């Protein structure tokens, strides 16, 4: 089983985290799941959803429904979600995210991806990616510990992430919360955020 | 001899009056005002409240807000709060000293400090006023200094023309004591510009000596809490959101305001 | 960052030309700004200036700054110690109380933070809306929605004209599952803040739910519910006309 994170997805997630450094952030992963040998899950892009201090389920639900429609228009699938906790040392999966991700998993018929952001790596700012990847196998297991599961992040993504912090372009990312304040902001396509 | 009170009497005043009387009085009063303000600030620096005092006064503030805005929360939580606060106010739960009696003994050590500060402040306000007033009437008596642009009834003549014993002099001509009074009131405005609105050099309120400080009522809050208990007991809930749906529909034009004639789009 | 840019020249350069009180207020802001951007050594350097001025007198404000420096360094235990000592001397210092609570939140010690905040609010029972809002957030993180609702009710009582409070309350009511009350509070939000997108989504969401639920859970007529749903859909469609997300939302509204 191969999991591949594209440059676009990585940068969007990174920008979302950096833009709201003191809040918890959540978003959805979009891509394609293909069977074969090996089976692949390709995370093509990510859609940032929330940066509010306390996440409530009704908003997530509305966002999810709209993303669903967006996916159908663009022939993509919802293949997972990502989340970063507020406190640096806290790397637990919050209950709400747990349920949310399980929901996505059942809609996808399994093999969905839950990306928890490792805040320490985000601060360290070195050449590693910032994720702790989880897959659901009865409970959430770290991907790298499962045999025959490969996790690849496009190298260019990691390189460019330093750039977008330096030149401030991370601030152009828009999530559902910002959209609710100003509906002229396109949180689904995020055209203004140039990768 | 017939004094023509309707003709303006022109007197020619020595221009040096301007420099030696008007300005000095104004400047002195201004400086004294600033001095007063600074002294009062120094005196009030040491007045900090204890937890108990903060608690009881905020409890009163809460009660008033609760009674004012009770209709915006659902009825169930309203009832909860109503019962809780009725008990709390009645039993003196938030009071600093539930056993306080009315006439807080002024010599009692706990009271001493606040009473002393109150008295100091009162003196700081009064003494300069008396001193200045006697200074002005002593040094600057016996002549008119200024002509008022408006007309006053004769009664005031006695006050404003103290020291000038003529009967016919137009009331508009006043003595320096009256200039003192004008400054007293007028400089209050200037002080609030310079010292900020909370200054202690303001005018009229200091004239009446601040006697409410003296009988330091320790049980002021006890009484307030009791009366709030009564108010809370009788207050009823009328939910402001009861027909909010209709209000919204009417607002957006989906429903006409007349009851029997519902027009749903 | 802006604070640092503006304040630094004031402090370094025209040091003597500022009124005494103003100077130290700006210094305090500068120190806090440095702590925010993690330049702790600079913060300490400026703190020394304050210390020299105050010398041996006890100052709660100075103690608070000491505590904040320890917080920035990550020495939460030390910070808590400093704050507790300060509070022994100066009971009613709200700022220090709040820092103590903040440390516990940063520490991950949410239950202690809730405890302290409750004690604080027993005394400062009126006028501190931020404290109630923070407590509501903490309760939500602990999944105690009922208590969070209580906190928001408190702020509504203090400030019944603020549409954000009604919005928050409605969100929490959704979490508890009381959709009828949620709908009413979303309506009130809309009343206070015309064309509020979140309120419109909220009205749509709650009333769609209510339409399908049992009679005992709702207090308005089906007619009204349907009217509200239509209203929400219409308003959203209208407002989204100028939005790049129009298509998606129109599809969404058809559901």
Automatic annotation (TrEMBL), chain A:
Xref: Pfam families: UPF0172
Gene Ontology terms: cellular component: EMC complex
Family matches, as InterPro entries: EMC8/9 (IPR005366), MPN (IPR037518)
Coiled coil: none
Domain called MPN: residue spans: 3-140
Protein family: Belongs to the EMC8/EMC9 family.
Name of the protein in its database record: UPF0172-domain-containing protein
From TrEMBL, chain B:
Keywords: Membrane, Transmembrane, Transmembrane helix
Keyword match Isomerase: no
Family per similarity comment: Belongs to the EMC3 family.
GO BP annotations, alphabetical order: protein folding in endoplasmic reticulum
Major location (coarse): membrane
One GO location term (cellular component): EMC complex
InterPro entries attached to this UniProt entry: EMC3 (IPR008568), EMC3/TMCO1 (IPR002809)
Functional summary from the UniProt entry: The EMC seems to be required for efficient folding of proteins in the endoplasmic reticulum (ER).
Compartment list: Membrane
Protein name: ER membrane protein complex subunit 3
Transmembrane segments: 17-35, 130-151, 171-195
Lineage: Eukaryota, Fungi, Fungi incertae sedis, Chytridiomycota, Chytridiomycota incertae sedis
Membrane topology: Multi-pass membrane protein
The organism's place on the tree of life at top rank: Eukaryota
Automatic annotation (TrEMBL), chain C:
Topology with respect to the bilayer: Peripheral membrane protein
Keyword annotations of the record: Endoplasmic reticulum, Membrane, Repeat, TPR repeat
Subunit structure: Component of the ER membrane protein complex (EMC).
Record-linked SUPFAM superfamilies: TPR-like
Ranges of the TPR repeats in the UniProt entry: 60-93, 129-162
Source domain of life: Eukaryota
Family, per entry: Belongs to the EMC2 family.
The name this protein goes by in its record: ER membrane protein complex subunit 2
Organism: Anaeromyces robustus
Cited function: Part of the endoplasmic reticulum membrane protein complex (EMC) that enables the energy-independent insertion into endoplasmic reticulum membranes of newly synthesized membrane proteins.
Any GO CC annotation of this UniProt entry: EMC complex
């Amino acid at each position: 089983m191969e999991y591949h994170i594209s440059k676009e997805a990585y940068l969007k997630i990174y920008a979302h985290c950096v833009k709201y450094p003191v809040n918890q952030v959540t978003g959805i992963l979009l891509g394609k799941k293909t069977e074969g040998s090996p089976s692949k899950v390709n995370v093509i892009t990510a859609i940032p959803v929330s940066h509010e201090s306390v996440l409530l389920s009704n908003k997530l639900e509305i966002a999810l429904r709209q993303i669903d429609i967006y996916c159908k228009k663009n022939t993509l699938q919802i293949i997972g979600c990502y989340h970063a906790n507020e406190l640096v040392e806290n790397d637990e999966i919050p209950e709400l995210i747990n349920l949310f991700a399980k929901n996505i998993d059942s809609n996808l018929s399994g093999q969905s991806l839950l990306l928890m952001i490792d805040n320490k790596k985000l601060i360290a700012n070195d050449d590693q990616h910032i994720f702790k990847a989880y897959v659901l196998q009865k409970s959430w297991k770290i991907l790298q510990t499962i045999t025959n599961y490969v996790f690849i992040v496009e190298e260019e993504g990691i390189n460019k992430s330093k750039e977008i912090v330096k030149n401030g372009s991370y601030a152009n990312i828009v999530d559902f919360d910002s959209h609710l304040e100003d509906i002229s902001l396109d949180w689904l396509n995020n055209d203004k955020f140039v990768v | 001899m017939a004094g023509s009170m309707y003709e303006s009497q022109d007197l020619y005043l020595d221009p040096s009056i301007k420099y030696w009387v008007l300005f000095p009085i104004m400047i002195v009063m201004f400086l004294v005002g600033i001095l007063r303000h600074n002294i009062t600030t120094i005196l009030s620096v040491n007045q900090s409240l204890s937890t108990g005092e903060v608690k009881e006064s905020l409890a009163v503030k809460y009660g008033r807000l609760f009674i004012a805005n009770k209709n915006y929360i659902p009825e169930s939580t309203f009832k909860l709060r109503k019962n809780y606060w009725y008990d709390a106010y009645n039993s003196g739960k938030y009071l600093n000293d539930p056993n306080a009696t009315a006439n807080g003994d002024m010599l009692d050590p706990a009271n001493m400090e606040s009473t002393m500060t109150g008295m100091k402040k009162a003196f700081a306000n009064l003494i300069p006023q008396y001193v200045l007033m006697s200074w002005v009437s002593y040094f600057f008596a016996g002549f008119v200094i200024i002509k008022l642009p408006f007309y006053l009834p004769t009664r005031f003549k006695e006050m404003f023309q103290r020291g000038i014993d003529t009967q016919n002099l137009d009331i508009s001509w006043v003595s320096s004591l009256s200039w003192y009074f004008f400054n007293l009131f007028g400089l209050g405005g200037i002080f609030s510009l310079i010292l900020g609105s909370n200054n202690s050099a303001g005018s009229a309120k200091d004239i009446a000596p601040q006697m409410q400080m003296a009988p330091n009522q320790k049980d002021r809050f006890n009484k307030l809490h009791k009366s709030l208990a009564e108010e809370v007991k009788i207050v009823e809930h009328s939910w402001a959101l009861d027909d909010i749906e209709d209000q919204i529909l009417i607002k957006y034009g989906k429903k006409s305001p007349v009851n029997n004639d519902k027009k749903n789009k | 960052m802006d604070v640092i840019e503006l304040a630094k020249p004031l402090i370094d350069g025209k040091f003597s030309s500022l009124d005494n009180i103003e100077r130290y207020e700006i210094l305090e802001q500068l120190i806090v700004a440095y702590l925010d951007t993690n330049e702790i050594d600079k913060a300490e350097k400026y703190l020394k200036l304050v210390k020299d001025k105050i010398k041996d007198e006890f100052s709660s404000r100075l103690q608070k700054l000491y505590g904040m420096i320890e917080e920035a360094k990550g020495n939460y235990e030390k910070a808590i110690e400093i704050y507790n000592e300060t509070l022994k001397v100066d009971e009613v210092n709200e700022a220090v109380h709040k820092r103590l609570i903040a440390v516990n939140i940063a520490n991950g010690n949410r239950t202690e933070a809730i405890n302290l905040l409750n004690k604080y609010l027993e005394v400062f029972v009126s006028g501190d809306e931020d404290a109630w809002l923070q407590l509501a957030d903490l309760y939500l993180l602990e999944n105690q929605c009922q208590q969070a609702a209580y906190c928001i009710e408190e702020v509504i009582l203090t400030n019944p004209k603020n549409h954000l409070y009604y919005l928050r309350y409605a969100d929490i009511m959704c979490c508890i599952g009381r959709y009828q009350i949620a709908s009413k509070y979303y309506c009130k939000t809309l009343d206070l803040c015309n064309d509020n997108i979140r309120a419109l989504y909220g009205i749509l969401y709650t009333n769609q739910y209510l339409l399908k639920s049992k009679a005992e859970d709702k207090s308005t007529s089906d007619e009204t519910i349907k009217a509200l749903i239509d209203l929400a859909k219409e308003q959203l469609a209208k407002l989204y006309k100028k939005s790049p997300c129009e298509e998606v939302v129109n599809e969404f509204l058809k559901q």
